[in-house]
Design a protein that fits this description.
93% of the residues lie in helices and 0% in strands. By secondary structure, the chain is mainly α. The longest helix has 74 residues.
Amino acid sequence: MEIREIIFSVVMVVSSFVLTYEWLGRFKYSPANALIILSAMVMVGALAGMILLVDMRLRKIDNMLEAKERSLRINIQSVENNLDSRVNEVLFRMDDIIASMDRTRYR
């Protein structure tokens, strides 16, 4: 979790406090102001927490996918190298067989 994400979460909570306080101040509804303001702050704080958790999960999934992609790339490269060596072996054998057939044909 980065510092800017925490700062954005704090800004969300503070802005919910200011918005709720000013909005309720227009209606002169004083007795329940503290409870309404507190519940709005908790709601926005929970929303910020959910957003941060989703972001952390997405980053974790992204890192896992990158690791799997890297391992798959390495495996493909090793298979390619093995296949190249086997094909080269077969080509050398075929060249030897063709050369021996040419020698026996010209005798």
